[in-house]
Amino acid sequence: MGFWSGTGCGREPPLIAGGLGTCCGLVAICLLVVGNHVKDANKDAADYDYKHATCSVMSTTLSSYLDKQQAGKSRTVYTCSLIVTTSLTGDRNFTLAGTANENGCIQFGSQCDYTVPRNCQGDCWVVYDGDNIVGISIMSKAATEALRTGINIAFVVIAIILFVCCCLTCCCAIVSGTLQILEERDGGDGGAAPSEQ
């Protein structure tokens, strides 16, 4: 049996192993870049001031899409876009992405009528950068920062795992290439053995 056969590290074609390692490395770099971007966005938003307010729904738009899952299964996902005003900003309108189900929007509960302006209300936060209004949020500043920090940590952890996989796969490519060379050399030496007279 030759060296370059079977399964396991060093037994796969070196080009495939090297390609997988390179792919893992590139994905790891991309995740680190995205994670760093999230971290920078969190720093930029650190000086924002979140002021608690009451949001009133003026109108809504319900939409849905089909989410394909494993084994050929799928489920319908519902989303709701709300036009709201706040108790701090008068009649100025903001767009808010909210939760929904097959019956309609449920961002501020299901016991009100979303088709009637100001009938549905709930907690929200107006985001200020100095005296300028940046937007509104359904989460407080602490919750928003915790979410962004969690996302950043997740990106970094996944990137580290992929980077380790990249290193291991590239090592396997080197081992695989070495075994292939040894097998070819072994085969060549066997075919060139001189015969005795």
Task: Give an account of the 3D structure.
This protein has 197 residues and is of the alpha+beta class. The chain has a domain of 93 residues: Beta Barrel (OB fold (Dihydrolipoamide Acetyltransferase, E2P)). Helix content is 42%, strand content 29%. The protein contains 2 helices and 6 strands, in the order αββββββα. The chain has a 6-stranded antiparallel β-sheet, with no helix packed on it. Strand 5 and strand 6 form a beta hairpin. The longest helix has 51 residues. The protein starts with 13 loop residues before the first helix and ends in a 6-residue tail after the last helix. The N terminus is likely disordered.
Q: Which features would summarize this protein structure in a list?
A:
OB fold (Dihydrolipoamide Acetyltransferase, E2P), elongated, alpha+beta, 197 residues, 42% helix, six-stranded antiparallel sheet, disordered N terminus
Average pLDDT score: 77
Shape: elongated
Assigned CATH class of the domain at 48-140: Mainly Beta
Mind describing the biggest β-sheet?
Answer: 6 strands, antiparallel
Number of beta-strand segments: 6
Strand order of the largest sheet: 4-3-2-1-5-6
What is the CATH topology assignment of the domain at 48-140? Answer: OB fold (Dihydrolipoamide Acetyltransferase, E2P)
Helix content: 40-55%
Q: How far is the N terminus from the C terminus? A: 30 Å
Query: In the CATH hierarchy, what is the architecture of the domain at 48-140 at level 2?
Result: Beta Barrel
Beta-strand share of residues:
25-35%
Low-confidence stretches: 1-8
Tell me the radius of gyration. 29 Å
Distinct helical segment count? 2
**Category by helix and strand content:** alpha+beta
H/E element order: HEEEEEEH
